Amino acid sequence: MSSSHSTLASKPLYPPTVTAPPQPLPLWRFLPTFVRNPLRALPRQVYEDDMLVAARAGATIAWVMAPALVEQVLVSQADATTKSPVEKRVFNASLADSILIADGAQWRWQRRALAPLFRAVDLQTHVPAMATAAEAQVARWRSAASPAPRAVDEDMTRATYEVILATMLVGGRPAEAETILKAGNDYLARISWEMAFALLRLPPWLPHPATGQMRRAARQLREAVSAIIARRRTEGGDGRDLLGRLLAARHPDTGEPMPDNLIVSNLLTLLEAGHETTAKALTWTLYLLARAPDWQDRVFDEVRGVAGDAPITADMLARLPVTQRVVKEAMRLYPPAPVMARQAAEPITLGAHRLPAGSQIIIPIYAIHRHRKLWADPDRFDPDRFLPAAEVARLRTHYMPFGGGSRVCIGAAFALLEATTLLATFVRAARFGWDGRHLPEPISRITLRAKGGMPLHVIMR
Ligand code: HEM
């Protein structure tokens, strides 16, 4: 494995993993730890073992790490599992019944209805909108040029949200867009309470400190999206954007349109899943590049060589392999969606373990990506892990920022096009610098946030 290009090779620059308890936590310690940061409740064995089984709140919980076992959960035995009731509960108020959390036939028809939106040839047509949003962010940096560090995490949320609005919701009103952005953030920021209560099987009617704020945020989200849908119905609009296509979607068997509540849930799912994850991917990528200036130089040289000063176009992206490798390695160390969960719908055998129906199955992507036995020097930033020969030698469930199996992220190709276009545009325009102090702890709030935000120096070139 090459380390010649990484300044991170020799220095222990950031906490290797989030502090991990040696054993699964007892209930009384689990709740406060989980609410603070769910990653801190992952026991140390998940970074070292193939699989770990324990009991919690009267149920079996299994963490599955070995790629071959993950493959069984997501592919060969996928029909024996459902999405986790915990996920359904935490999203019930905002994304009820959407493609993200539905199961069985209800999921399948939504996936079939939405798949055409993400066809590779169509995605290429979004690259100009992505480049425009990236240049707009560069202009904001230029006009606010200051030696003080900037909250780059907020900048990335703004830039990726502009992309999703331009590609998925043509003609939306700025006030509605702001409401959705803010309420979506409020909802996710408080989600660990609901999640911890669900994991402990406390009844849904039992309030927790964030109940009121989450309900308010969910109501604002659904009202804003419903208003957009109602206006589109009366005024018409771009039939080719996401909303136009959702309204035109028909059930393949019955020919019925998608009911309104499902249109709201799916539009919200795509708006939220479609920008928040990519924003986090870019935030952590810029952090790693700020700490590995030699890799930042390599990305700069590559982009200048391929694009000069011109906007990034779809045909250039394949000629930016270093930029792409950097994004992939950043999503290994900081997977934007750090944990996936399923429930065993029937008894299921994984390795030497027989899990009863109802078991919770956790796939801790964050830990798999830093697993002591799966990666050499796992905490080190080294984009050359994604040289083509190394990539093909791995099982697909060894590196899985987008999940796997039939429920693999529907927006994966969109996200990769977007992350590459934005990163290339940003690094060509500015140099990102670390303040030498802030060691952001990755915190799981469905997406992987940086504790204390991500202040970086943005020095225009
Ligand atoms: C870097 C960016 C992204 C990451 C890391 C990511 C990650 C993931 C992961 C891990 C899953 C699987 C969840 C599971 O099986 O439990 C998933 C599913 C999903 N993602 Fe993404 N995602 C990203 C971007 C996007 C984008 C851009 C969109 C849409 C515009 C999107 C929409 C969805 C949807 C709808 C699902 C549910 C698919 C299904 O269950 O059939 N994601 N994503």
Rg is: 22 Å
CATH class: Mainly Alpha
- Unreliable stretches, pLDDT < 50, 5 or more residues? 1-16
How would a crystallographer describe the biggest sheet? 5 strands, mixed
- Series of H and E elements: HEEHEHHHHEHHHHHHHHHEEEEHHHEEEE
Enumerate how many helices there are, as a single number. Answer: 18
The side-by-side strand order for the widest beta sheet comes to 1-2-8-5-3
Distance between the termini: 32 Å
Q: So what's the overall shape?
A: globular
Helix content: 40-55%
Output the keywords.
3-stranded antiparallel sheet, disordered N terminus, alpha+beta, 461 residues, Cytochrome p450, binds protoporphyrin IX containing FE
Give an overview in words:
This protein is an alpha+beta fold. The protein has one domain (27-460): Cytochrome p450 (Orthogonal Bundle). Helix content is 50%, strand content 11%. The protein has helices at 27-36, 67-76, 85-95, 104-114, 120-124, 127-143, 152-168, 174-189, 191-199, 211-235, 242-248, 260-291, 293-307, 314-317, 321-333, 365-368, 388-392, 412-429; strands at residues 51-56, 59-64, 81-83, 150-151, 340-344, 348-350, 353-355, 360-363, 430-433, 442-445, 447-450, 455-460. The strands form four sheets. The chain has a five-stranded mixed sheet. A hairpin with a 2-residue loop joins β1 (51-56) and β2 (59-64). The longest helix is centred in the middle third of the chain and has 32 residues, at 260-291. Mean pLDDT is 89; it is low at 1-16. The structure holds protoporphyrin IX containing FE.
